[in-house]
């Protein structure tokens, strides 16, 4: 995983995306997330795999544009949720404060 992330970061540097406009990168993320939704609604597993991968790529680049790494963003998020209490309702986790 670490090697793949480094490859994406280098690809981003090679394409000058690391210095690109983060707002445009966020729009690209939304576009790719929409493709994930479309693949789910059509039950197209290969498209879903591609969409998830493309979404992760856009997030790696967005983090890079802000001087962060995917790993540190993921760690930050995990540190926030690891002790979270709540309940899973209809397949969705609802944090305790929202119940």
TrEMBL record:
<dbReference type="Pfam" id="PF03819">
    <property type="entry name" value="MazG"/>
</dbReference>
<dbReference type="InterPro" id="IPR004518">
    <property type="entry name" value="MazG-like_dom"/>
</dbReference>
<feature type="domain" description="NTP pyrophosphohydrolase MazG-like">
    <location>
        <begin position="29"/>
        <end position="85"/>
    </location>
</feature>
<protein>
    <submittedName>
        <fullName>MazG-like family protein</fullName>
    </submittedName>
</protein>
